[in-house]
Amino acid sequence: MRMTAISICSRPVTRHLLIPADQGTLAMAGASWLFTRYIVDQFGDSLPGKLVQTPLTGTANVAAQTGQPFDQTVSRWALANWVSDLPGFAAPSELQYSSWHFRTTFGSLHGQDTANFAIPYPLVPTLSAGSAVNISGTLQSGSGEYVRAVQRAGGAAFTLHFSANGTTAISPAIVPRLIVLRIR
Predict the structure, then answer these.
(1) What 3-state DSSP class applies to 144?
(2) 81 CB-contact burial (10 Å; exposed 0-12 / middle 13-18 / buried 19+)
(3) Which candidate, 38, 42, 37, 18, places its Cα nearest to that of 28?
(4) pTM above 0.85, yes or no
(5) Nearest 5 degrees, angle CA 144-CA 22-CA 141?
(6) What is the pLDDT of residue 171?
(7) Reduced to 3 states, what is the DSSP secondary structure of residue 16?
(8) Among 72, 106, 109, 71, which Cα is nearest to 86's?
(9) pLDDT-derived band of residue 80, with 50, 70 and 90 as boundaries?
(10) How many domains does the chain have?
(11) Three-state SS for 10?
(12) Would you state the pLDDT for residue 29?
C-alpha cells in the first residue's frame, strides 16, 4: 500500500495573476476563465452577476462575493485542477468542478488527436519519493507547483525545508503556502 500526496505551493500575493488589471496574456486569460468556471461551479450561477454589480474589484471582490478568503478559494481551485475527476479518488465537493470533467475530456481529445494532445491530461506533477522531494526555481505570485510525494505505508516520516539557496532559511514574509492532500 502506498500513500501519495500532492503539494501545491503558492506565495501570498497582493496582485494576483488570475485577476490582471489589463487583458493579460492568452495563458492568463485562460487561467482567469478556468478560475471563474470553478467559482461559479462552487458558489452558483448568480456569482458572475454579483462580481460585476459591485464597486469592489480583484481579490477583495471575489472574497466578498464568495464569503471565503481569497487564498482559501484559490488554493482549493488549484487542487481541484488536479483531483477533480481523478480516477480512484473521491474528491470533496470543494475540490470539484461540476460542469467539467477534465480527465475525461482530455483523454478523449488525446485519443482523437495525439499530435495536438500528446498526453491524456496536461497537468503532470513531479513524482518522487517523499524523502527525496527536491524542487528549485522561482515560484511566481499566485502560481503553484504540483508535486506527488510517494511514501510507502508505514514509511518513515520526512520533513520539508524551504530555503533561499539550499541552506539559508527563507524569510517568513515569503514562505509559500503548502497544501498536502492524501490521495490514498
Answers:
(1) coil
(2) buried
(3) 18
(4) no
(5) 20
(6) 75
(7) coil
(8) 106
(9) very high
(10) 1
(11) strand
(12) 77
For residue 177 the three cell numbers come to: 503556502
For residue 42, pLDDT over 50 is answered with: yes
Domain that holds residue 136: 2-182
Own/partner long-range contacts of 66-72 (Cβ < 8 Å, ≥24 apart): 66/39, 66/42, 70/16, 71/12, 71/177
The residue with greater pLDDT, 34 or 134, is 34
- Which amino acid is located at 180 in the chain? V
- CA–CA distance from 144 to each of 2, 75, 167 (Å)? 24, 9, 22
Is 146 exposed, middle or buried, given 0-12, 13-18 or 19+ CB atoms closer than 10 A?
A: middle
Tens digit of pLDDT for each residue in 51-63?
A: 999 999 888 999 9
Judged by DSSP in three states, 8 sits in strand
